[in-house]
Amino acid sequence: MTPRPATRIVRNAITLAMAVALCAWSMEIPIDSSWQVAGAINITLAATLLCGFLTAELLAHLGIPKITGYILAGVVAGPHVTQFLDVDTVEKLQLINEIALSFIALHAGAALDRTLLSGRSLALGLNLAFQCLLVPLIVFGAIMVTAPFFAFTAQITQAQLLALALLSGIIAIARSPSSAMAIITECRARGPFTETALGITVAMDVLVIVLFTAALALLSPLLDGSRATGWHQAGVLGLELAGSLTMGALLGMGINAFYKRVGKDHALFLLFIAFTVTRLSVLTGHQLSAFTALHLSLEPLLICIAAGFVVRNATPFGEELEGDLMRLSLPIYVLFFSVAGASLDLGALAICWPLALVLATSRAAGLAISTRLAGRMANLPAPERRLAWMAHLTQAGVAIGLTQIIARKDPLTASYLTTLTLAVITINQFIGPVAFKRALVLTGEEGKDRR
């Protein structure tokens, strides 16, 4: 017999209160030996999973996406609130987080059905083109006009403001495939709107890296007087992208071979794949740097997306792979987004929230204009044209990583860019999932995936 909603709410609230009390008690236990450190990390991991799950279940009764509950639980547990997860613990959990991201990327690739996407090729192309052009332009203009009025940016030079505005505009088109997949999985959404949104999200995270590197090459004379370094970085980037996509295609064929020979129980294999890709990418980058003059590194996110896409569209096991990944997704998403919540920098938001709010608002406006223009030119249904921008608000991973590239050229500009980017991500990670879930409900694609 299924418990009534009110009973479930009370039960989950009591369990969450007990879990929080246990966490508070565990924080008072002194750590005196290495085995206690290991035990404390295990308890922290388990408590994070439990509290994230229960928080999400409670908020779900209010119509709030579960991913928001996971993130909120992480924020409360993190170093800026209760410090149950301190900075050192969050750092120790990053390996698990990277493995989870590789798993989610594999899931994103496996969800991209070429048959559905081919019917939306015009819409995909127009969306990518308009968003790559209009979103950076609108964000750039908003920062250049308003930055002198904020204490956060009033003291930087005109060249640094130009670099900050241009790079922030390009970072504004970065997305979060992990957040998109979490919402799609939770809503069990399927259909042309869902496929188009996911396709744009995945493609944009590749394009933003290319555009950012090109912009950095153009800005080199302003930042450090160099004209060669940026273009050298662009060449290295091309090799990294080609290498990552090639490795992903090979991995996809390897997964196909495994599925042919093993009829069931693929869960452990898929987790092993996520772990292997994460560690081998780092190892390969170190080896290439040691034996060549190029500092190359393969990108686990691209490798896993390419592998999932190949299995889905070039083998008979695409549906089976996606089903296996969906069954494993709950603990992965809870852990990943809870740790992501703990990693959000509330300090950065406190420092520059007015400018971050301007950037987030101008970014949303750029997305709304771009998706509406693309939808009209591609003759998409009116509800999709009106709601498409709501699928693209979330940001994470790649946006943060891009800010680190500029640190080698101008640490001061990099510090401003990192602080502002983290503040905007904090805003978008709370607003984006709610907006995307609402869009899926309004387009009628929620619950269409019956697997």
TrEMBL record:
It comes from Desulfoluna butyratoxydans. GO terms for biological process: proton transmembrane transport. The chain crosses the membrane at residues 12-31, 37-60, 124-150, 156-175, 196-219, 231-255, 267-284, 332-351, 413-431. One of its GO terms (molecular function) is antiporter activity. It is found in: Membrane. Its main location: membrane. GO terms for cellular component: membrane. The keyword Transmembrane helix applies. It holds the Pfam family Na_H_Exchanger. Keywords: Membrane, Transmembrane, Transmembrane helix. This is Cation/h+ exchanger. Residues 48-438 form the Cation/H+ exchanger transmembrane domain. It comes from the Bacteria. The keyword Zinc does not apply. It is a multi-pass membrane protein.
